[in-house]
Design brief:
Two copies of one chain form a homodimer.
Chain A (H helix, E strand, L loop, with lengths): L2 H12 L3 E2 L2 H6 L15 E4 L3 H14 L3 E4 L16 E4 L6 E5 L4 E4 L5 H9 L3 E2 L12 H7 L6 H4 L6 E7 L5 E5 L11 H5 L8 E8 L1 E2 L6 E7 L2 H14 L5 E5 L1 H11 L9 E7 L4 H14 L3 E5 L2 H12 L1 H6 L3 E4 L9 H15 L5 E4 L4 E8 L6 H16 L18 H5 L1 H14 L14
Parallel strand pairs in A: 2-4, 3-4
Antiparallel strand pairs in A: 1-2, 5-6, 6-10, 7-11, 8-9, 8-10, 12-14, 12-15, 13-14, 13-17, 16-18, 17-18
Helix pairs in contact in A: 1-3, 8-13, 13-14
Chain lengths: 455, 455
């Protein structure tokens, strides 16, 4: 069947939810990773309901057409980029909050709602959903779940997997499954909900989610900014905070190149040459005492420390960290890496980054969610394509992270950009097992082909 | 191949780790559920190392022999009971703590270590592993993971899935896979670690686990005991505590029949007729203030309330709850059910239990982890076999729990005792999908056949 015939079938079933405008198709080729798929997809289906998703997938199965599920397109690994011959299935318009049950700390939502929009609504009930990716203002809950996008708060408040009780999933053949539960506990059968978290569109289409909520944390948020003469001192200090047993809500590290780029973007005074910064927030009823203890610890380690007890000022200070991605964009095309290591290995990982910088003659501005050991080294280059030297340097970084007991990706996912390293981390036997599990869900291989598992 | 020939092959490979003593074989037929497998297994392999597990599974695959993995045999759903023609693979002797890394809040353990033994060791480092099943003194960490055994602390400190970062697994064919990670975050590929949690020996044999630890909670534990005139009032009061936003560490409910049985066992004064009891513990730096707030709330709801700030007295008060299982054993054979409902539905679930009691002319002593909505209705009867009327009543309870948005099993697993209801909760499509996933791990169907997925 030709592409035109497939689009005709989609139009017959879904009418004006099928979009073939050149601008829309072009946009669906790329995400925020800088990577774009080759070629152009057939059409975008803007699903408004579960039945639209089912209709699309039935046609895809009948015609053997690949389907790329897409939310807001804010991914950083190319996982939702669609190319030649593919149907883009957008669930962005499925953005309702179906239910909020404060007494059970549960919400049921559609996948297209933005993380920030959900949390704005939940705040009215004194509640929040913990996953807090840096993209929360522009990324969807469904996308957060599909990639396992963690964010700044994971060490204290858990990862996405901990915050999802159930998902509704449409399989490749159009059948709807309700996975998981809405109870605190439940061990009936295999945990397919967790299998869907981070599955990057390869197993099914998430059309609903039952979320585990938290009550808003009482007390003031305190913010600590500590400047160190170099990145290794900052990394060691963050490891010392973790080892002290005080659990900050947020602990972000910016190296010298990152800090300089953000200061330039925001029109701030240039930081001292080589200086690296920790930005730490404590929350909860003991936040003031905890912030003072952390500040004392950091001063003892040679940091230049300031503490703010004002929430607005705290947000302004954290905004410096949140400006990292825009700051990099001013420098060129950015490949944002995402390795994660055990927290005690953070200083060693920064040593490895310095070694790779020297070996390849690159500057690799790096920020880290230092509280949980997740680093984002940024490779900046000109033009749309990642130069070979960058991939070689990234390869060195990945192998270093694995040697230190770490992982390829802490929260961005594998997508297309890391698929060639997947078997290095999983081992061949596990890689093959995972592919077979995908085949159980998607025997025709039409769900996001070429992503994650492609060899 | 005959059973004798299979045992001969096991002996040739594993020597005196192969046990065919009648007493051992008889013990391996049963767990703590009251259920025993029909017939007698071929042999027990007492694995001392991963290589023993691999050797056993290679022989099982080559000879097509079923394998039942077993830890301490404390399960409550018959999931580790072995019968005719089966090899019992005991990992109880693999009980080493391989590594404790306090700075990363990680421990690596073998599966046979007892939960309490692990936590005694971790306490030396100021750490603990949160899963806290009532059986923790006698149950293994591997068994806790294989069943998803939650316990008393789940509402505040999470379920087993939240506390396991990775597992080492031997597949049916003897290959060793290392699943998961040791970092806080990690989304490389599908989350097979979570798939193993609660898989009840059907996918592979867990031979090692990387556990996510917590630091010991500072501050005093406060214990609140509140007696109410009836179980519905107690259930409503527990729901009110949850809705208040104060998060106790423990909130246990005992109905009148449970309370009376335990008081009799422990030689205490008989409780007032019909009285039900909540036992609540708060912990952390604010535990005293929280306990006073909860006590005030419960008094306002008609409870007769006592508060203790003494840790030892608190343990004695909680021991009343922990004596439930022995108390039931004095009355006859016990089938302990395990439904879980959304917390707000707890009073309604107690209404359903009362309805079932009247309809079937039974007394169903029930305790509940009221803080998380997990109820354990106990059916007590004479003799080894569950009478049909009990299964009919249990069937009614399961359906009521599902109607209330709940689940068949909160923490005991499906095993053999709940397999006939599995498809009722999962739906036929999901049930079939789960069976196919099992087949990917275990194509010959030799791992714990007849458990969980048997039709």
């Amino acid at each position: 069947m030709t592409g035109d015939e497939i689009v005709t079938r989609l139009r017959a079933a879904l009418g004006d939810r099928v979009d073939t405008s050149p601008a829309s198709l072009a946009a669906a080729r790329a995400d925020k990773s800088g990577h774009a798929a080759s070629g152009t997809p057939l059409a975008i289906v803007h699903a408004a309901a579960v039945s639209d998703v089912q209709a699309t997938l039935r046609i895809a199965t009948e015609t053997g057409t690949p389907v790329v599920t897409r939310g807001a397109g804010t991914g950083l690994a190319g996982g939702a980029n669609a190319g030649d011959g593919e149907i883009v299935l957008s669930v962005r318009a499925m953005d309702r909050i179906v239910e909020v049950e404060p007494d059970d700390l549960v919400a049921v939502v559609e996948p297209g709602i933005l993380n920030a929009a959900l949390n704005a609504e939940l705040a009215q009930h004194g509640l929040w959903w913990a996953p807090d990716p840096a993209s929360r203002a522009i990324s969807t809950v469904g996308g957060n779940i599909a990639t396992g996008a963690g964010g700044l708060l994971c060490a204290k408040y858990g990862v996405v997997r901990d915050a999802v009780l159930g998902v509704d999933v449409v399989l490749a053949d159009g059948r709807l499954l309700r996975l998981g539960r809405r109870t605190v506990k439940g061990v009936t059968g295999l945990d397919l909900t967790s299998l869907m978290v981070g599955s990057e569109g390869t197993l099914g289409v998430i059309v609903g989610a039952t979320l585990k909520l938290r009550r808003l944390v009482p007390g003031d948020v305190c913010t600590i900014v500590a400047v160190f003469p170099g990145v290794r001192a900052a990394a060691s200090a963050s490891a010392a905070v973790t080892a002290s047993g005080i659990q900050p809500a947020v602990m972000e590290l910016m190296d010298a190149a990152s800090l300089a780029a953000v200061h330039a973007l925001l029109g701030m005074h240039a930081p001292q040459a080589g200086a690296a910064q920790l930005t730490i927030q404590t929350d909860g009823p003991l936040s003031t005492a905890e912030s003072e203890m952390i500040a004392g610890l950091l001063r003892g380690l040679g940091g230049s420390v300031a503490v703010s007890h004002d929430a607005d000022e705290g947000e302004r200070l954290l905004a410096i960290r949140r400006a990292m991605h825009p700051a990099m964009e001013t420098l060129g095309t950015t490949l944002i890496e995402d390795v994660s290591v055990p927290r005690s290995a953070l200083p060693a990982m920064f040593d490895e980054i310095a070694r790779v910088e020297r070996a390849f003659g690159l500057v690799i501005p790096t920020v880290a969610h230092a509280g949980d050991g997740n680093l984002h080294p940024n490779f900046v280059f000109d033009g749309p394509d990642v130069p070979p030297v960058v991939w070689e340097a990234a390869d060195e970084l990945f192998r270093a992270a694995l040697r230190l007991g770490g992982t390829l990706t802490g929260e961005h996912g594998v997508g297309v950009l890391k698929r060639r390293w997947l078997a290095d981390e999983l081992g061949d036997d596990q890689w093959e097992l995972q592919r077979r599990i995908k085949s159980v869900f998607d025997p025709l291989g039409i769900l996001n082909p070429g992503k994650v598992f492609a060899s």
